[in-house]
Specification:
The chain has no helices and 18 strands. It is mainly β. Strand 2 and strand 3 form a beta hairpin.
């Protein structure tokens, strides 16, 4: 068993910070940090209703639709963004008041949070099959669809990998999300 692989089955549901939804935390840094002092955090949320998002002051966020019809986010009562295209990242600030209008049924989405005072980050989508080497700022690889082969073992959809600089192999038809994080 590798300590670099995080299996989907090993992530437990937990309530959102505001208690109005459910998320499965995949990883955070430092590992023993709480919601108020992590430097970066990656999770997969289940959005089943039009509940508002939790606020995270001082945190930059990126969200990516994984499954479902998606939803429209209204940020601070003014700006709207339709999160309806799978695997397309959308960045917003954690202070924003986010209201949600569902486009259909329940969805699942991938979330990267970065403490702004510490650094910056982004989510990159990779769909090209073949061998790839993680960038130095890649802190986590998440398999959104398909299969990935790593030095530590094979990953299925929903699994994650805390990469070193070892190459990984993306199978045909697979999609991975790369969580990038680096200090200022």
């Amino acid at each position: 068993m590798s300590f670099h692989i995080i299996r989907a089955a090993d992530t437990q549901p937990q309530p959102w910070k505001n208690g109005m939804g459910t998320t499965r935390e995949i990883a955070r840094f430092p590992a023993d940090a709480c919601n108020e002092d992590f430097l970066w955090r990656v999770s997969v949320a289940e959005v089943n209703s039009a509940a508002p998002f939790s606020t995270f002051p001082g945190v930059d966020r990126e969200i990516v639709l994984l499954e479902g019809d998606g939803f429209t986010m209204t940020l601070d009562g003014a700006r709207e963004h339709a999160l309806v295209i799978p695997f397309e990242p959308f960045a917003f600030v954690g202070e924003a008041r986010v209201e949600v209008t569902m486009a259909g049924g329940a969805t699942r989405d991938f979330n990267l949070m970065i403490r702004r005072a510490w650094g910056r980050g982004e989510v990159r989508t990779l769909m090209q099959p073949g061998s790839h080497e993680p960038a130095p700022s890649c802190v986590l690889l998440y398999v959104a669809r398909g299969m990935v082969t790593t030095i530590d073992g094979d990953l299925q959809a929903g699994d994650a990998w805390l990469p070193d600089r070892s190459p990984f192999e993306l199978a045909e038809g697979s999609v991975v999300l790369l969580a990038m994080a680096q200090p200022n």
